[in-house]
Specification:
By secondary structure, this protein is α/β, with parallel strands linked by helices. It has 3 domains: 126 residues, Rossmann fold; 122 residues, Alpha Horseshoe (Serine Threonine Protein Phosphatase 5, Tetratricopeptide repeat); 174 residues, Orthogonal Bundle (DNA Cyclobutane Dipyrimidine Photolyase, subunit A, domain 3), CATH 1.10.579. It is built from 21 helices and 6 strands. The radius of gyration is 24 Å and the shape is globular. The chain starts with a strand and ends with a helix. 43% of the residues are buried. The protein binds a DNA duplex through helix 14 and helix 21.
DNA sequence: TGAAATGTTGGGGCG
DNA sequence: ACGCCCCAACATTTC
């Protein structure tokens, strides 16, 4: 009886799981293991919303194993020590895992792989959560891509068309005493701000697959247009499921293509716009892998001289809690707080407001998103914030400053989204709703704050700071 | 996956 | 019928 340990990390699923499938194929006994070791992810330990999701996703995974006569073995602490100890206790010959690509994870896995191999334990690390491994995509001269469009052109012609792996089944799932109950990980918040989350989200593999089906049936055909409207459920909202590896890009692509084929030829949904968004996810992982310092540093060194505003905690708190006085920004920040998620267009607007109108360093925003998003993902978060701030590799030019009023007029013309998240403004006529300060009586009556900055003036100030930066760079002292 | 300023065009009202 | 003005709609430029 040969035994293997499958170490679950960012791949909380049974289907299309290369590590799990390989372990089941090559060994008769398989121990599914989760080790909680947030300190090993420093300085990006999972935030509060992420931990909420993790708790429920682990519970769902554990249930899946129970249904199969197994159990997810849960431990806490230093991953290498736990693996060593369990390998000894089970006489496991091998450890399997699917790769992660964050710098801290790569360093940890490299160290653990070497240590285990020295002790005679086979280690199999598998690709699982990306279409292509980051080192498999390169320019003609072998460099990593820095611009999305050529990256996507290269990637999309080169996608693996093989079908996703079926749900893995071991000859025998190994059950072991000494594991922790899930509650011992203390992932759920002490102050229960998460009360609304359960209504919205169903963490876990089956939740992910249900959501994918709903998306293919209801939203895919109108995705290209509807994805920009925050009032609608026009996006897939698969991002947290993807982050925790409850579903893979390969499964999603297979479902999309299957769906596009099934329809009659006249009204065939085009999967391309959505696949392109998954391409951005791949691009983010590609960049983080090749440029691991980009979580802490501006990708583009030209911005090193940019002076960011030093704002007080109370000012930052206004942005965080959705009391800036700018409706679309506030609606987004409140959606984030109440649901652990924010519509992508609104993320761009809220981030543009923080970095350009308030001129707060993008890291402050990235930190808040990291702590409050259920889909917080180091690669995506870093790319997104650097993109908005203009400091990124393939970023929005610095002068591209969103006007939150224009944006809500354009993408939430009837104010449905604004009213949903700003109940104090629910009765305000739509024209005023987009810019309540235009009607001082409205502010007095509703108690909604006046904007913490003048949009036009702060835009001008940001543009001035940019041209100053350029002047300094072109004429060095 | 910008916004605002500036430039151009063309239709309609009007003397 | 014509020129003129106005202005909306669209295009281009600039940040």
């Amino acid at each position: 009886m040969s035994c293997a340990i499958v170490w679950f990390r960012g791949d909380l699923r049974l289907a299309d799981n290369p590590a799990l499938s390989a372990a089941c194929a090559e060994h008769s006994q398989v121990l599914p293991l989760y080790i909680h070791s947030p300190q090993e992810a420093a300085p990006w330990r999972p935030g509060a919303a992420s931990r909420w999701w993790l708790h429920h996703s682990l519970a769902a995974l554990n249930e899946r194993f129970h249904a199969k006569g197994g159990s997810l073995h849960i431990r806490h602490g230093d991953a290498l020590s736990v693996l060593r100890q369990l390998a000894q206790a089970t006489r496991a010959e091998a450890v399997y895992w699917n790769r992660q690509y964050e710098p801290a994870a790569i360093a940890r896995d490299t160290r653990i792989k070497e240590a285990l191999r020295l002790e005679g334990i086979h280690v199999h690390s598998k690709p699982g959560n990306l279409w292509r491994e980051p080192w498999q995509v390169a320019t003609k001269v072998g460099e990593p891509y820095r611009v999305f469009t050529p990256f996507w052109r290269s990637l999309r012609t080169d996608l693996d068309g093989s079908p996703p792996l079926p749900v893995a089944q071991a000859a025998q799932w190994l059950r072991l005493d000494g594991g922790l109950p899930l509650s011992a990980l203390e992932l759920l918040p002490r102050i229960r701000w998460d009360t609304g989350f359960g209504q919205l989200w169903k963490p876990g593999e089956s939740g992910a697959n249900e959501l994918l089906e709903v998306f293919c049936d209801d939203a895919l055909s109108s995705y290209a247009k509807a994805r920009d409207l925050p009032a609608r459920h026009g996006t897939s909202r698969l991002s947290p499921h993807l982050h925790f590896g409850e579903i893979t890009p390969r499964q999603i692509r297979a479902a999309l293509l299957r769906h596009a084929d099934r329809r009659d030829s006249r009204n065939r949904p085009d999967p391309e716009p959505y696949l392109r968004e998954l391409g951005w996810r791949e691009f983010a992982h590609h960049l983080l892998y090749h440029f691991p310092t980009s979580t802490q540093e501006d990708f583009n060194p030209n911005f090193a001289g940019l002076r960011w505003a030093e704002i007080g905690e109370d000012q930052l708190a206004r942005w965080q809690s959705g009391r800036t006085g700018v409706p679309l920004v506030d609606a987004g920040m409140r959606e984030l707080w109440h649901t652990g998620w924010m519509h992508n267009r609104v993320r761009m607007v809220a981030a543009s407001f923080l970095t350009k109108n308030l001129r707060v360093h993008w890291q402050s925003g990235a930190r808040w998103f990291w702590d409050t998003l259920v889909d917080a993902d180091l690669a995506n978060n870093t790319l997104g914030w650097q993109w908005v701030a203009g400091t990124g590799a393939d970023a929005a030019p610095y002068f591209r400053i969103f006007n939150p009023v224009t944006q809500s007029q354009k993408f939430d013309p009837d104010g449905v989204y604004l009213r949903r998240w700003l109940p104090e403004l629910a009765d305000v006529p739509t024209r005023v709703l987009h810019e309540p300060w235009a009607d001082p009586a409205c502010l007095r009556r509703t108690g909604y704050p006046s904007p913490m900055v003048d949009l036009a003036a702060s835009r001008q100030a940001a543009l001035a700071a940019y041209s100053e930066l350029r002047r300094v760079r072109e004429v060095p002292d």
